[in-house]
Design brief:
CATH superfamily of the largest domain: ATP-grasp fold, B domain
CATH topology of the largest domain: D-amino Acid Aminotransferase, Chain A, domain 1
Largest sheet: 8 strands, antiparallel
Number of strands: 18
CATH architecture of the largest domain: 2-Layer Sandwich
Distance between the termini: 53 Å
Strand order of the largest sheet: 13-12-9-10-11-14-17-16
CATH class of the largest domain: Alpha Beta
């Protein structure tokens, strides 16, 4: 099995997916923009060969270079799990006549307006929305849909360049920040709790499913500094409110023609119990979500994803044993980390349940929390009981504090 894996070293989860492919017996041919010398050791150990290209986002150039590089070689699959390059992978599959999701199908996972149109056509609840390319189109859509609303890039990922707007005046203040975004989606704001539906699918059939809850919603987490955002996987998927989200997610994947691979979907549960689709990507969730899923069931989903795409199989026991919370920390102040308070005490209280502690050390420069949810580090913990997992997460939120200055 020969697999071309686009972007085998970035984002940070990708070396583990490269390892997964090698573990299940694939010969891994990587394509990336960095030199071989810059690749993580895990990626280098997994690769059979590697093509460095000047710019992964110049799809025509990458296709031409890959065609010349792969001439005479056998290739069975082309895969990518990085949002900006999934369409490139689809184009390469079509160019080489390989199995996998087509360009048209992948566009349904990248273009947020097309995505909602295809899902709505299947009779599933989506937010009212409009595709907009100009300021005047945004104003007209906002007037038609009504406030509050959300404005975000058509082909974005996560919460980048995403804004909640309460009025026309707020829209006018945001429009200059979106001048470099070619297309945006203006859509209804759905009030409610926000969850994920994560899957590994084989020929469109979910063989692994996960649900996690955002606390608070990502839009709040990305706009308010003085909080410690939490994401917690849900061990028990049987309650009706969770089952409704799972049914919605499965319907979305059918409507979009999902093939084989990872998906990351976000959905809302309103106070009246209605579930509403948010958005979906043909990729794994970011911010260490896959590691939370691994801790939830004590599995290695990097390997199981690879087994699914290479051999059409999923072999792990995915019994859900724990609710797994990740708590992201943000330092007070600017500059370098000067001290960390409360960590030793929290670890002493909850050491049995703590999976990882990865906070920036004293002396390290703060990260830009508006650009990365991971912020200045995180703590991962788990517990079989939901209330206890959240109680410990709140202890980390309240008691672990990072300070920066100078």
């Amino acid at each position: 099995m020969d697999v071309v894996f686009i972007a085998p070293a970035y984002p940070q989860e990708m070396p583990h997916f490269s390892r997964g492919l090698a573990t299940v017996g694939a010969r891994v041919h990587g394509i990336g923009s960095g030199p071989v010398s810059s690749l993580p050791d895990m990626t280098k150990a997994a690769l059979t060969s590697y093509l460095q290209v000047p710019n992964l986002f110049d799809e025509d150039d990458v296709l031409a270079r890959a065609h010349a590089w792969l001439r005479g070689r056998n290739v069975d699959r082309v895969e990518s799990l990085w949002e900006p390059t999934v369409l490139l992978a689809a184009r390469m599959r079509e160019r080489f006549g390989l199995p996998g999701m087509s360009v048209s199908t992948v566009r349904g996972f990248r273009d947020k307006q097309l995505m909602k149109e295809r899902i709505a056509a299947a009779g599933l609840r989506v937010p009212a929305s409009a595709r907009c390319r100009t300021a005047s189109e945004c104003r007209a859509a906002a007037e038609r849909i009504g406030y509050p609303l959300i404005i975000k890039p058509i082909d974005g990922a996560g919460s980048a360049n995403t804004y909640r707007l309460e009025s026309a005046a707020q829209l006018e203040r945001v429009l200059p920040a979106l001048v470099r975004v070619p297309e945006v989606s203006v859509e209804e704001f759905v009030e409610g709790e926000e969850f994920t539906h994560d899957t590994i699918c084989i020929d469109g059939r979910p063989v692994y499913e996960n649900v996690a809850q955002y606390l608070p919603r990502p839009l709040v987490a990305r706009s308010v500094h003085d909080i410690s955002p939490v994401i917690c996987t849900v061990r028990d998927l049987s309650p009706p409110g969770i089952q409704a989200g799972l049914q919605l997610g499965r319907g979305v994947l059918r409507a979009l023609g999902m093939g084989t691979g990872f998906t990351h979907l976000e959905w809302y549960r309103k106070a009246d119990g209605e579930v509403v689709f948010g958005e979906v990507g043909q990729r794994v969730g970011g911010a260490r979500l896959i590691d939370q899923m691994n801790y939830t069931s004590d599995v290695d989903l990097y390997v199981e994803w690879a087994r699914a795409v290479c051999w059409g199989a999923f072999e792990a026991d995915a019994t859900r044993r724990h609710n797994v919370a990740i708590i992201f920390k943000r330092a007070a102040g600017q500059g370098r980390i000067t001290r960390i308070e409360g960590l030793k005490e929290v670890v002493a209280r909850h050491h049995r349940w703590i999976c990882e502690v990865d906070l920036l050390p004293v002396g390290a420069m703060r990260r830009d929390w508006t650009q990365t949810l991971v912020s200045d580090g995180y703590v991962i913990l788990r517990h079989p009981e939901w209330d206890e997992a959240l109680r410990m997460a709140k202890d980390v939120q309240d008691q672990v504090r990072l300070f920066a200055g100078g």
